[in-house]
Fold this protein.
Amino acid sequence: MEYSKRKLQEEKVFKDPVHRYVHVRDVVIWDLIGTKEFQRLRRIRQLGTTYLTFHGAEHSRFNHSLGVYEIVRRIVDDVFAGRKEWNVEDRLLSLCAALLHDVGHGPFSHSFEKVFGLDHEEFTKMIILGDTEVNAILTRVDRQFPKKVAEVIGKTSENKLVVSLISSQIDADRMDYLQRDAYFTGVSYGHFDMERILRVMRPREDQVVIKQSGMHAVEDYIMSRYQMYWQVYFHPVTRSAEVLLTKILHRAKELHRKGYIFTYKPLHFYSIFNEEYVLQDYLKLDEAVMLYYFQVWQEEEDPILSDLCRRFVNRDLFKYIEFDPAKEYRKHSELEALFKKAGIDPEYYLVYDSSSDLPYDFYRPGEEEERLPIYLLMKNEELRELSRESDIVDAISGKRRTDHKLYFPADRLHDQSSRRNIKKQIRSILEI
Amino acid sequence: MEYSKRKLQEEKVFKDPVHRYVHVRDVVIWDLIGTKEFQRLRRIRQLGTTYLTFHGAEHSRFNHSLGVYEIVRRIVDDVFAGRKEWNVEDRLLSLCAALLHDVGHGPFSHSFEKVFGLDHEEFTKMIILGDTEVNAILTRVDRQFPKKVAEVIGKTSENKLVVSLISSQIDADRMDYLQRDAYFTGVSYGHFDMERILRVMRPREDQVVIKQSGMHAVEDYIMSRYQMYWQVYFHPVTRSAEVLLTKILHRAKELHRKGYIFTYKPLHFYSIFNEEYVLQDYLKLDEAVMLYYFQVWQEEEDPILSDLCRRFVNRDLFKYIEFDPAKEYRKHSELEALFKKAGIDPEYYLVYDSSSDLPYDFYRPGEEEERLPIYLLMKNEELRELSRESDIVDAISGKRRTDHKLYFPADRLHDQSSRRNIKKQIRSILEI
Amino acid sequence: MEYSKRKLQEEKVFKDPVHRYVHVRDVVIWDLIGTKEFQRLRRIRQLGTTYLTFHGAEHSRFNHSLGVYEIVRRIVDDVFAGRKEWNVEDRLLSLCAALLHDVGHGPFSHSFEKVFGLDHEEFTKMIILGDTEVNAILTRVDRQFPKKVAEVIGKTSENKLVVSLISSQIDADRMDYLQRDAYFTGVSYGHFDMERILRVMRPREDQVVIKQSGMHAVEDYIMSRYQMYWQVYFHPVTRSAEVLLTKILHRAKELHRKGYIFTYKPLHFYSIFNEEYVLQDYLKLDEAVMLYYFQVWQEEEDPILSDLCRRFVNRDLFKYIEFDPAKEYRKHSELEALFKKAGIDPEYYLVYDSSSDLPYDFYRPGEEEERLPIYLLMKNEELRELSRESDIVDAISGKRRTDHKLYFPADRLHDQSSRRNIKKQIRSILEI
Amino acid sequence: MEYSKRKLQEEKVFKDPVHRYVHVRDVVIWDLIGTKEFQRLRRIRQLGTTYLTFHGAEHSRFNHSLGVYEIVRRIVDDVFAGRKEWNVEDRLLSLCAALLHDVGHGPFSHSFEKVFGLDHEEFTKMIILGDTEVNAILTRVDRQFPKKVAEVIGKTSENKLVVSLISSQIDADRMDYLQRDAYFTGVSYGHFDMERILRVMRPREDQVVIKQSGMHAVEDYIMSRYQMYWQVYFHPVTRSAEVLLTKILHRAKELHRKGYIFTYKPLHFYSIFNEEYVLQDYLKLDEAVMLYYFQVWQEEEDPILSDLCRRFVNRDLFKYIEFDPAKEYRKHSELEALFKKAGIDPEYYLVYDSSSDLPYDFYRPGEEEERLPIYLLMKNEELRELSRESDIVDAISGKRRTDHKLYFPADRLHDQSSRRNIKKQIRSILEI
């Protein structure tokens, strides 16, 4: 039988704490899960440094990827199957794109990408199209299949309906991570009636739409998203750990550039330091490897690298205050000057960070195009943009909220050295 | 104020998915959590290789240790406080012992300890009594305090009541891990009414006892334990990953002994290979470091080490059959001979493993002394051993169940080389 | 010992599906629960006719009253105890008011009170102050105690802090019913982190306030409330059953007024029909008694009473359309005329009903005084009204939403009698 | 289209707290739910008097019947569909039998049937085969269909597979009630992995069997059952309320027999008192009607009837002691004599009650035939009786446990009348 249609003799199930069971019947999916590129996601945490704030958040991207796959599977097999607007040929494409949508993620992506100017979406494409086990399987389905999958994940596919299953304001990706991250952190936000939402999803030419009767479940989902962003994803303590991470990578790169001789050579980072993005090197870089370096680098001679690594490994994080440099430009300059005087390099030890979120938005011409609105399917088959029907969504629609923080090592501002007066000044400005 | 009595200005809470919140008010506890030895538990998974079977089981021992602390805190603060049989002086001792009971665990303890003849309980003692941040804090409470804590954890303390809170057939350790492991794996076993059990616990001279009215909750707990053992802890796929791990460590040690030149030197393992158990070296060895070696060793020249590492990293596990070598001695020898003929070293590729559990037992003179029975406190203040009151517990009491498996790489038994006939013979014996 | 301070020898616990356990240690509370007036709440459903929409919603006001008591108990015993702003003398007052706040509710209160012009709060007062078992117990505490309890429930007490525990925009009453009604209906709304809210409640002179750190939990609570109102409490099918109930009572009263001879005499209703509100008669009227009458009245000769009863008993409900008579006055008149022509009395068979809710509001001078705002307690001890801090609450604050429905028996609009043309006209106007 | 095959235009869903949603697509099922005989189940509590012990247990048989239907629907539609051993023609039969299996239940069945020598299974048959709305619908499917449904429910059908879905040691009935009763009482027993059990059920000629891989889920189910029996169903306080109920009915029947003139005539009971089992009369007797009588009978002149009714209505229950009259025959006689002397009729006020359960049993020739064993389907397609594979089930298999209680009104044994010495004697024998 054609490879794309082959089924496992006996369905395989993964016990999943969020969706109870993840069901696999397609040989293609089973084979993809077994590839080393996909197994690698076990070594990358879904929420990066969040486990340093919420100790339960130790779950991996492997976990989440299976979850997204399962949600899409339920949509296409239990809800879309048999509907005239749904092309059954798109089934396997949807499942593969769901499973692989995060396959290019690296360790602690946020900081990593920021420092090295990388983009995990690029790596996803390279994994799907390059010389990998994943590519071999997808090619076996059809020579054009890897390209199709990559286009869906990259949102350049003409098949907008399938794209919207994976990336839209109400997609399987978000529905999985909100629930999963709530489950593992243990927060009481993040709950909404996904079963209901799935049941009222309908395929339309350009995107998935939601039957009007499911509006309240969608409102709940949007509120969950809002709460999870501010309670979990943008938690200032998590960001403090991100700040450390970013500064460690930054310092290591800088030292390498300057020709510093590492006791523990950053072999795994060479190609990235040199801005050569070699897929095989990238794939070797997982969180275990990063943590290995952070640990051994505690013994490096460079005091900044070693201090930052020690802080990260032992969770000795920076403290923070509310601070918006744009509004308090002078104060910021003054602080930088004082830090230098105190012998604490502000480049690494006085770090501004902001987070910003838009809980939901309708389409605004000329802006980020991904913000496709959520459409309700009315009884008369008309489509109405969600915020026109929902008072609550209307109330928060397009309202961006931003949060500004300044991070610094409070413990280093208290000693009794000759610099005690400078430090006193700093503390007085920081009001700590 | 005395250090041992100091309270945090504002209670700290950890969001915990199992107990909802972990509450810390004592400065001593807060300080212990901040030590690097305790933070290190974040880098050691609670269930070792189980995440390769149940993908949710990625939680760390840090997680569990906080949980055990919280359970003991609830017992001593909410249930025991004010009872005449409870000495309030034992409160801090109980909390510290609970928090630190697993602090000596290494990465993938089971395999690690088996191969290197180590015992994590020894390391726990060394961490508590040696030159560590943990020891400094405990000593600040009282010069004798570290020793007291170590004795409770080591079960040599004369304070049997406190010992029984941490290690008995119904202790805080088991109550936490059953629930926690069920939560993270997502299995539906592992649930019992802990709130009820805590409420009916009573302090008695030699141990914690359970008021008779809580008997059914205890029955449920024992059944949970039974199910978790067979469904999760002894899962044959998890054991297959353990087998790989054990054989990797075994091989590395062997290569080192023979003077093999590693491309990636096992620096972190030297003292252990040499059977010098240096605490500072041990503390550097966490799962990230182990996984780093497994990953780089895929590129070692030694084909066995490299193959086993590749298998572990990519989750290419051995298959298994039911097999008890004690009963089928001849078949086992024959298999070993055939494996050798086929060029597959049976030392590493034909591995027998068994698991065995006793769900509950009453005291049997002359046997393992830790098996203290669970006592019910009857209305007339008499103590009765649980299995005399509970039909269900009586039915399973002392019934040991054992499971025997033989592991091997099924994929290597199928090629079409000149050895195909030998492999066919092997497959026929293994009935695969 | 003084009666007000007496404790049960052994704490009593009620297993509660929402709060897990309800704990009773005070003899006064135990005695109040045992009174016949309180036990009567077992025969009155918390959500009236909602069980005809959500079949799980069969829980009684007894259930809810214990829940409110338990929440207040946790606030005063676990959070307020020991705080200087909390007067421990108010403890028993708070517990009794919580337990008894709904004791005057009658069967299907909403319809019942509407038809007979009653007010359950009046009856609550009569039960607390009149010749009842409840009164006897409260008087035993202190001669003035019944009055104090009644004033707290009636919101006329000078002790505004205690009043706010039971009736404010974030009180124990709402926190219990949202969670309880969500639990029994099975909807996924209604969840919020009550444990967190309780922990951050602080007593202040005029009301309970919430520490700023709990703001997000409060936002979640307000959203839950919003969703529960529209998804459960104002569900149009539930209101359809309410419409039937109201019309049955209306008809029975009317028939009684006209001197109709009932086959099954409405003995239990006489005093109410005659607008004599006799406490002892009121207390006999529970849902079982009402359902008894509805059942036997199916056999009454009056066709309207018998038809409405049959419909209620067998859940043969009216259908509905969106309709606002204020906007479509002419259409409404036309419908009434056509119903009359068709021989279907519009008084009983063409019923307009509207529901309206305000999810949260801050204080608006000169309006309903009960809408006390929720105050956040900032770090600097300042109080800030919630909507000034919370974007989401600000967005929905003061936004009233109203829903208009017209109810009618669709089944009677389809027959083939001589009136078929009139009925066709009706159907065309109703667009059914 | 044929009535039996007609589908609703849009699937209807019931929100169910236990199974989340109950799905109805068949017109036949929808019509059956709408019948007055089925709606009547809303007025009969699933657990009779249990709500007087566990206040949450106020759920009706309507609730449970929908749940059993939903479980069978999932089995036949999601698991059996397409399997060669399953005859798709049996689908509607299974669904109807599931939905209607309890339709003949009366109010407080246990006591009711005991006093009047009735059998709800007889009434189920009469409702299905007699002149009812249910019968009309079933007949519309096929003239023979009512008979078929009745035979499945009555376990006389030749279609043993379908019978076993509804009544066997692991049937949809039990799986629903264990979970549902646990949910509403709030106890932590009653949980097992039903989703897993459903997935491993397989149709075989004579009954449903369970794939071996589901054995542990079945063990958990059997333990749940054991715990629910002893913790909930046989709870001595619930039985105390049952005792009252039984004695009320007993007394009313006796008074009627003796020609006592009731102030409130037991019109609804006449045919039953006269042992004429008239279906239409039976159907009018629901819990509301019974509670109506209990309430008005508080005012009857007969002191026993009035006292028992007052006790039931106000939950003033009898106390109990462990007592087995078979073993303590003399003591029992003595107590009866003393009760008489004290003027307390032992017939109504000294009541023995026992409960007994067998958690699981395999087939024992010549005994109750319904105890069909549970069979595991081994990998080699062989069937093995559960207790041969499961140590735990083997341990408790066939172990009957019995509990004996003696109930009496403790409050009446304490007065200071002339009979105080007799009462003292009684108390001394009862050891209270």
About this structure: The radius of gyration of chain A is 24 Å. The mean pLDDT of chain A is 93. Residues 236-258 of chain A form the longest helix (23 residues). Residues 238-355+404-430 of chain A form a domain with the Growth Hormone; Chain: A; fold (CATH 1.20.1250.30).
